[in-house]
## 1
Amino acid sequence: MSIVSCVKVDQNSVNPKSVFMAVRKAMELASWKKYVQGKKLVLKVNVVWDRLYPSCTTTPMVIEGILKTILESKKFEAKNIVIADTDTAAIMHADVAFKVLGIENLAKKYGVSVINLSQTDFKEVLFKNALILHKLKISKVLLEADTIITVPVLKTHSYSTMTGALKNQWGCIHDLRHNYHMVLNKAIADVNNFFKSRITFAVMDGLFGMEGQGPKTGTPRKIGYVFASPDRVSLDTAVAQVMGLDPQKIRHITYAKEVGVGTMDIKVVGHKLPKFNFKTAEQSNIVMATEMWLRHLGPKVEWFMFNGKSPILPILRWSAKIYYDVWYFLIGIKNAQKMMKTNYGKMWDARYLKTEDLK
């Protein structure tokens, strides 16, 4: 049985200290000091989009709460802490996202580094006892870390039903990870199993959540919770219940349990788990649906379209970027503005952003 902490954030406060306090309490209830050890620490956040879209990416308030908790404990020096994520297939650059979301400014404030893993050196590593992945390219930044804290967002996903503490490690794989979408659930389990000894703690950002066509074009909603656990399987099991989903039916959670990443037998501490009825995607957005259609045409077509040397792949990637940019300006920005008017959005805006960031 693993501990999962659940802490409700003040639903009305516009003071970011309320978030910092909730993060600290969630981490302490889950005994973070016992699991976060060593000298080099990486916070693996989720900056899957270089647009301001609350519920899509890890909020800087939660990241700052983690930094304050760790630095004030004196367990790590700021110079040895890295905030990191990677680029996506849809030509989303993590370093741009860090600037847009205010995370780069936050890193400078505390003297920690912010790194786009896609711009680092990679090493090919072998996976033992893998379900589907036997070797992969992994950033040396992650391989050289003593401890990695994964900091995901609570949201739905058109391929994997939900994305949380386990799915967040998808960003630990080299840029061509889209080629594992047909075996996504087993691949998620394999990646998490590889990092089993290094990713020792997880903090789930539940200030906002996303339902529908996640992980980008879903609908955001204000949630107001922070969750933490040393066990990623346990954390996702609990959060699936929060979202109104059956964790036993989410294959990457059950596969991760089967390979020994963690347990689905949980003990919740702190506040009682809230219950929300998240809508899952009835169908994928155009980009994701087109990808799956092409991949199902057969292995030869899939290889021709998506291999790293394919002349078609850049066209597909730019098409995806254009679709997401158009969707954002037609639909997404209205959702973003609505969320930014909430108390958590006001914290974000006042503390980390410039007024022109949402224009």
## 2
Amino acid sequence: MNARSDIHDRLATSLRAARKARGLSLDAAAKLSGVSRSMVSQIERGESSPTVATLWALTQALQLDFAGLLEGRTAPGIKVIRAGSAPVIQRGGVTIRILSAPENVGRHEVYELVFTPGARLTSDAHNHGCREHLTVLEGQLLVVSGEADEALCQGDVARYPADRAHEIAAEGGAARAILIVQDS
């Protein structure tokens, strides 16, 4: 019984510390891991014996070393997200691959954007002072921010306010770009 309690306590402490160190709420940890909020909470309180699959999902979301979980170690070295593992969103002919770390959501986000011919990515205004940095890797894109617009070709970089309605549109064919969103 004591060994079991000790394991639960160390597991609970490691997961809670990792979540808080990354500034994540229970809801955010649940969303990133796919584990329910109530289960995350129960594990952090030492009230649940999670499955290996649940622990794996949590360690990946919290960027913890699965093997060193009970020692409270974080993964050393280089964190790699393989191309097929990055989260992808499809929106109106645009494939959006999320490249930034989950804990940076809302502060510093990085996306790869792949546009089919004529596709548009339209966004409402973000937080006051938010800016976007767009680098065209292939094709041509039109960027609109408020009343301003600019045509971009391969290699061009545009920096513009994103605290107003804005849009990125493929001009004349398919296109690919990297988008960085920085909140002030």
